[in-house]
Amino acid sequence: MSQKLQVAVAGVGRMGMRHARHFATLTPRAELIAVCSPVQSELDAAKAEFGCRTYTDYETMLNEEKTLQAVVVASATTVHAEQAIKAIERGLHVLCEKPISTSPEISQSVVDAYKASIKKFPSQKVICGFSRRFDASYRDAHARMAAGNIGTPSVFRSQTCDKLDPSGFFVAYAEFSGGIFVDCSIHDIDLALWFFGEETKVKSVTAIGITAVQPDLRKHNDRDNALGIIEFYGGKIAQLYCSRMMAAGQEDCTEIFGTDGKIAINTQPQLNLVNLYESTGIRREIPADYYGRFREAFITEANEFTASCLDDTKPPLRLDSAVKAVAIGCALQESLITGKKIEFDGSGKRVEVSHL
Amino acid sequence: MSQKLQVAVAGVGRMGMRHARHFATLTPRAELIAVCSPVQSELDAAKAEFGCRTYTDYETMLNEEKTLQAVVVASATTVHAEQAIKAIERGLHVLCEKPISTSPEISQSVVDAYKASIKKFPSQKVICGFSRRFDASYRDAHARMAAGNIGTPSVFRSQTCDKLDPSGFFVAYAEFSGGIFVDCSIHDIDLALWFFGEETKVKSVTAIGITAVQPDLRKHNDRDNALGIIEFYGGKIAQLYCSRMMAAGQEDCTEIFGTDGKIAINTQPQLNLVNLYESTGIRREIPADYYGRFREAFITEANEFTASCLDDTKPPLRLDSAVKAVAIGCALQESLITGKKIEFDGSGKRVEVSHL
Amino acid sequence: MSQKLQVAVAGVGRMGMRHARHFATLTPRAELIAVCSPVQSELDAAKAEFGCRTYTDYETMLNEEKTLQAVVVASATTVHAEQAIKAIERGLHVLCEKPISTSPEISQSVVDAYKASIKKFPSQKVICGFSRRFDASYRDAHARMAAGNIGTPSVFRSQTCDKLDPSGFFVAYAEFSGGIFVDCSIHDIDLALWFFGEETKVKSVTAIGITAVQPDLRKHNDRDNALGIIEFYGGKIAQLYCSRMMAAGQEDCTEIFGTDGKIAINTQPQLNLVNLYESTGIRREIPADYYGRFREAFITEANEFTASCLDDTKPPLRLDSAVKAVAIGCALQESLITGKKIEFDGSGKRVEVSHL
Amino acid sequence: MSQKLQVAVAGVGRMGMRHARHFATLTPRAELIAVCSPVQSELDAAKAEFGCRTYTDYETMLNEEKTLQAVVVASATTVHAEQAIKAIERGLHVLCEKPISTSPEISQSVVDAYKASIKKFPSQKVICGFSRRFDASYRDAHARMAAGNIGTPSVFRSQTCDKLDPSGFFVAYAEFSGGIFVDCSIHDIDLALWFFGEETKVKSVTAIGITAVQPDLRKHNDRDNALGIIEFYGGKIAQLYCSRMMAAGQEDCTEIFGTDGKIAINTQPQLNLVNLYESTGIRREIPADYYGRFREAFITEANEFTASCLDDTKPPLRLDSAVKAVAIGCALQESLITGKKIEFDGSGKRVEVSHL
């Protein structure tokens, strides 16, 4: 077997630890050599589980790990872009957790850094981790659509509903999350771009929302349930729903309506293949969170990113598409708050329309 | 058994014949005594099947049928209001097919006629036939919601997707249908009002749409796929999808998201309880049209309307709610065409907002 | 419309009242003119609901109702055969509830009476009410099988699971029910004959069973859960499960495995199209009893039986097949109790085999 | 991390290669060091993929691999027992593919060898690979049953239906497979023992079968579809169906009926979460074979076997239970061929009963 990709993970909170685990133990061609985190207890946990080196400072890690080839950026969203750029400029491969940033401009700066760097390091891979692109069901759906099985995909519906967390976590989280459309719907927006084609241009977005269970979200200009509609140039439309109040667990489903058929993904959610027949009827459980739903996809992501780096093959997704998704998410979030429809011209520039 | 309700049906095209059949043979407490239609072949078919009297002229029928107690208006939408009003003014009970009219003003005129008439005929019943209100599954869902099982209903999603009809029928039909939101989504809008409460007031509507399979619909300012979002006062929102291009058949489904749970109706559509295991996988069929899905509901409608007339009990639904549904449908259709968000103040009056 | 079939119902207990209702109000071509029952309160209830004549004595009813054309025998199973024969001998049409009798010989005597009578009354119709044959899903399945969609039907699996009734009702009931295979599985056996062909000959039966929740059933040589396997001549086999302890409600499902595919009926049982998303997962209810599952089938049965009588068309099912079902049910019940496999030769005669 | 378990795989045909892959790349705590096979092309493929040492002779491998700790026996069933015993006698850990042997006596000899060996090597682990025991859905079901959620498990139904393979492969295969009950149903029998308790004693078995698609199977005393029923002491019964003619793919499902509820596993089979809405209805695919259904379970098996060996913890399943499963499978196969019910006394000895 060829040499293993030398990987470090920046940020080993809940999701960072999972990434570390996927690279350390479930990605045969990768080797986790180091992690960094400002939180000592997180470093201790990582060291205990993986036996890797640990750093409290990101740059120190980059400086000292001489064999380092790839960095997984799984820190707080607010530092994603900065950390990604530092790694990019050193010619390292980067897998950056979504979103690159809650700002389209900052997101674009990462793409710009990559465009500059790749001239020097032509084999460098930088991707944003849209995990659903690695999910077997979404891939099956996309392959069928690409094979023409549903004719022209024309209408897209997708929703990301998180399980209700009555702890108030999401209120504090909303201060930096970029809002529900940027935090939750970013996946659905990315999927819309993937299914409609990443070149597809947005024409308008409109959103509405409520605070049904967490009125304090309004302090941070956020909502706990929101609906959005997106018009694309070329006769394609999309419908989004994002929510923080699903009782049963995580419910992420998507439908693509084509001129000759429809593909539905996860419209009958389930935890596993068990059904319980009880005096109250037939019951099945569903995953409690996105990791319960997408664990296998994250593992596939780690393996494919690794293979792309080692074999210098095309990365499994395009970085610029991630910027586009952030821009659409931000526009939806703005419409949600202002109540205004936001329109774009064919070049992607915003149109300020008088509706009088 | 008490005496049977003496019923006539105005309009015996496809759906009118079904109404006639429901009253003639599947409503034990009703008797179909007459039908009218301008089309002689339709009258002949009705006479052959039911042995009832037939008329080419609606007013003649009203004049000559001295024992007539109730009229089912199942003629072309364009004459619904006029025929309904003529029957109302004579003190007859009326079951009018939806929509009352494609115009909110004309719809309101039927309500006004009823309000005037009921002073003279206090037992008179006039309803608009929103068949889904009589469907066992929707009723079960509504009862559970009303019992508080999902907390406060906050988000509503509903779609009406007709099977693709490549014949071009819908292009011609669009000239008088009022548009896809008035023709298809009217049921979903009525359900939103039913689940959120008929007093709920609309705050804004926005819609977008495309012509994916029938570009000629644009001649009549219509679309074959459309998405709409509705804001209501009181922190409730709704999402609609209507389509004329579903490959598999009729797909009408609804979800009501509450603060404590969700109820889904028909999100796993099926024709019956049969699953076919074939070399290509597992397959089930779905109803080809709304009648395949809602036949039992129509029969329940006939029976409950009859009971309400004979027993002088509260009619199974409110007429003024039907006007509200038409008004919302028309606003969505307008937004679909103009691209503008339409807003309403708390009294239901339209607000002309500058978005500058 | 032609004249209505004049119908009487013998026995107006729970199921008899339902038959009466189906003929009185849901079978347009029939008229319920009389009922009989030894229980005065049942007669009072029937009179109040249908306004029909009532009799405490069956023969008196037959004697006095001069216009009577058809009798529905829905009394206790122990008098089914006797009442059926009395009606048959007068030339009346008969719809006899299943089973004709718990004895194959007595069941055969009804067939013999019919064979004798039909020479005198060539238009006479006598059927045994296997309701599932009138169910839309089973019919769809049968039509697909008959059309060759699954190749040669070769393996049949069917189960009838009643909701657990902790009242002890089934213990008392077992004294006269004929046992769980005759009472419950008779439907599954009838379906096996229908799907494999009514000429199909049984080769062997074996059964085993337990008393998991009602040990007192052993007093009447019965069990609350039983499994049976049936071999037919011609390379076809069947598997049955009958139970009295289903927690969730009535669960009746069937699968037919052919050389080219499988048809499954009701393997995903449901009360209606509602799914409830709760903190414990996704839940749906199922029918509480067989009437909740098969109400529409009973109504279809009433209408088709009526049509067959009035129009002198082929009855919707064959009476001799019902005798065959009873014989197989009795053999399974015997095997259940004795522990022995029971074998039949090609002429249907029992073979006493030494297994030494 | 502790040192990795040094593993060799005997037999690298289709399933052996999968085992090799699971240990080489998906079991972080294991290292694949060698494989053996009499087929050079298989060795070449293994060497190319894993870079491990290769042997044409099993004993040579055992002799030369001085660091070897564990052997996976994935060769032809006919040599399972012999190879397992050789490894056992050297004190190696063994994961033996199912069945240990098609003969209960030979299977027992492996257990005997292990019982003798473990006195010398008290940390030695020997298991038979019943993959379903490692499947997340079966485990969830078992945990719920063990927690008392369905009361006393009383009736067990399970089926293993392989996709129809028209190539004739299964005819040749039947010569050594032990027959359909030993080859296919062994998993279902093992599950019955697991759900009912491994101490549960069989009281009788009866089986019937047909050759619906492969009449040549009769040459080897086999069938392509078979039904079996099993009585256990203690009031528990089981129903099996095994088939080689499923059109849609692999369909393995299981139901456990308890006194208070039922658990169903995979009664709505699916390949993934995709549903296709086409002009013919709604369709989903199912896995083509057992590996498509149980791949994750095999990986879990490899990891848990490895952990048990390295940490000297209780092996994930008991070896003697595997012998019991073979004995029941053989009895069912015998009953299938002879047509006789086979009975056992409470000590597990066969009872020769006269049925006269």
TrEMBL record, chains A, B, C, D:
In this chain the Gfo/Idh/MocA-like oxidoreductase N-terminal domain maps to 6-116
Which GO molecular function annotations are given, in alphabetical order?
nucleotide binding; oxidoreductase activity
| InterPro entries in UniProt | Gfo/Idh/MocA-like_OxRdtase_N, GFO_IDH_MocA-like_dom, NAD(P)-bd_dom_sf
Q: Which residues form a coiled coil?
A: none
- Which ranges carry the GFO/IDH/MocA-like oxidoreductase domain? 138-263
- What SUPFAM superfamilies does the annotation carry? Glyceraldehyde-3-phosphate dehydrogenase-like, C-terminal domain, NAD(P)-binding Rossmann-fold domains
Quote the cellular component terms of the Gene Ontology held in the record. Answer: cytoplasm
Q: Which family does it belong to?
A: Belongs to the Gfo/Idh/MocA family.
* Statement: the UniProt record of this protein carries the keyword Zinc-finger: no
This one is known as Uncharacterized protein
Recorded hits in Pfam families, A to Z, give: GFO_IDH_MocA, GFO_IDH_MocA_C3
Which keywords does this Swiss-Prot/TrEMBL entry list? Oxidoreductase
Origin: domain of life: Eukaryota
One biological process term from GO is: NADPH regeneration
Keyword Oxidoreductase included in the entry's annotation: yes
